[in-house]
Specification:
Shape: globular
Helix content: 25-40%
Mean pLDDT: 97
Distance between the termini: 20 Å
Largest sheet: 7 strands, mixed
Strand content: 25-35%
Strand order of the largest sheet: 1-2-3-4-5-7-6
Radius of gyration: 16 Å
Oligomer: single chain
Bound molecules: coenzyme A
Structural class: alpha+beta
Number of helices: 5
Length: about 180
């Protein structure tokens, strides 16, 4: 887990966080995640790894991925709408990318809605490439998913992440 500059901190999600996480989730996605699913992920899904981001004592964002073989599949990432644009989504993503090395994984994948240009810009900043599309993937709106990946998770990409971390922490410290 990345040691973030104060007052920010990252840690694994616990059941006691679910209420706060579900509140952010409801404000972030067209079809909110069922609270039951968060319990399932934490209690039963051995592949699931969820983190929360706090600013002082308050949860301001969360993210999760599944470790499937040597692949990390990012299942969710969200920042409270009032806190967006402060590099907190980037901090959550960077943390997951560093965690990928600890398993270790060699590939990171995710799906993103075609219209979600903000998230796509974040992923492109971290060198995710578009590798495919899933037509009508999102049942709620019928929207297509774009499939994006980062590979390989080699020493060079780790160096890139380290450089990004330096820039990110400088920005977070100057805004805190
Ligand atoms: C996607 C999300 C997590 C980004 O979090 P955030 O904290 O607002 O983003 P950050 O401030 O960390 O920005 C990081 C990068 O994202 C991109 N970005 C952020 N806001 C953007 C905007 N309004 N327009 C374009 N790009 C933007 C930029 O590349 C930015 O890097 P930069 O500041 O160097 O330009 C957030 O918008 C969110 O929770 N959205 C709703 C849930 C969601 O769509 N999740 C993704 C599912 S695939």
């Amino acid at each position: 887990m990345l040691l973030s500059p104060a007052p920010f901190s990252l840690r694994p999600m616990q059941e006691s966080d679910i209420e706060a996480v579900a509140a952010i989730d409801r404000l972030s996605f067209p079809t909110p995640t069922r609270v039951k699913l968060f319990y399932h992920e934490l209690q039963q899904n051995q592949m699931a790894h969820y983190q929360v981001l706090q600013e002082a004592a308050k949860i301001v964002g969360f993210a999760g991925y599944w470790l499937i073989g040597d692949e990390i599949h990012i299942s969710t990432i969200a920042v409270h709408p009032a806190q967006r644009g402060r590099q907190l989504g980037e901090l959550l993503l960077l943390n997951m990318l560093f965690l990928a090395y600890t398993h270790p994984a060699c590939l990171v994948t995710l799906e993103v809605r075609r219209t979600n240009v903000v998230a796509q810009a974040l992923y492109e900043k971290y060198q995710f490439a578009l590798v495919g599309e899933r037509r009508g993937y999102y049942k709620d709106t019928g929207e297509d998913a774009l499939l994006m990946t980062v590979t390989p998770l080699d020493g060079r990409y780790h160096q890139f992440l380290t450089t990004q971390q330096t820039h990110l922490f400088t920005r977070l410290q100057s805004e805190a």
